Structure formats: C-alpha cells, structure tokens
C-alpha cells in the first residue's frame, strides 16, 4: 500500500494497493482510501486506472476484483469511471467495524483494460 502526504495543511491524500488472492486461482484485489483533502479531484479514479492497468499487464492474473460498501456510492462511481464492470451485490461480503455489510462487486478483466 502506498500513501502520499499532501503538502498543504490537512493531511494525507490517500493510498491504495493491490494484492493477489492465492486461494482464488488467478485473480487479484484492489483496495484504496482517499483523504479529505483529495476528495472530488479525480485522484482516486486516476490511481485506480494506473494501478489496475499495470497489474493486468504485469501480473499473470485473469481478473482484478474490487468491492465497495453498498452505501459508498463515491467508491462505486470511481470503479465505474475506471472501467470496472458492476457484477452484483455480495450479501454480508465484508466486515466494517466488526459488522458484516453488503458490498457491490466489480471486476476488470485483461481484455477490458
């Protein structure tokens, strides 16, 4: 995961990372966060496009997987602007603060990047 400090007062711009899921057989996942000072400026979309294209070009995987909480419409919009396909909702897909939450599942395949 990488994070980049903002030179202006206010803190961090954000961070992101990609990891391979060794149990899933050929796919990787993406995760990120955007700090308050960088929201609404296109940083998340640019970062996702760059990292996802690099991953699909450099790693021998067949799928890049992204999940966003059903209430996190900003992250869902970032995924769609970056070219990811919305596949559906995974019920109780991940824990958020110790509570199972539904998550929207997105994917990007090598031929789509």
Strand residue content: over 45%
Helix content, binned percent: 10-25%
* Overall residue-averaged pLDDT value: 80
The description of the largest β-sheet is: 6 strands, mixed
DSSP, total strands: 6
| Overall body shape | globular
Give the helices and strands as they follow along the chain: EEEHEHEE
Oligomer type: single chain
Going across the biggest sheet, name each strand in turn: 1-2-3-4-6-5
What does this structure look like?
By secondary structure, the chain is α+β, with helices and mostly antiparallel strands. Helices cover 22% and strands 45% of the residues. It has helices spanning 43-58, 73-81, and strands spanning 2-5, 12-21, 27-34, 63-69, 85-96, 99-108. It is globular. Residues 1-6 have low confidence and may be disordered.
Secondary structure layout plus pairing:
Blueprint: E1 2-5, E2 12-21, E3 27-34, H1 43-58, E4 63-69, H2 73-81, E5 85-96, E6 99-108
Parallel strand pairs: 3-4
Antiparallel strand pairs: 1-2, 2-3, 4-6, 5-6
In brief:
With 113 residues, this protein is an alpha+beta fold.
Features:
about 110 residues, alpha+beta, 6-stranded mixed beta sheet, 2 helices, 6 strands, about 45% strand, disordered N terminus
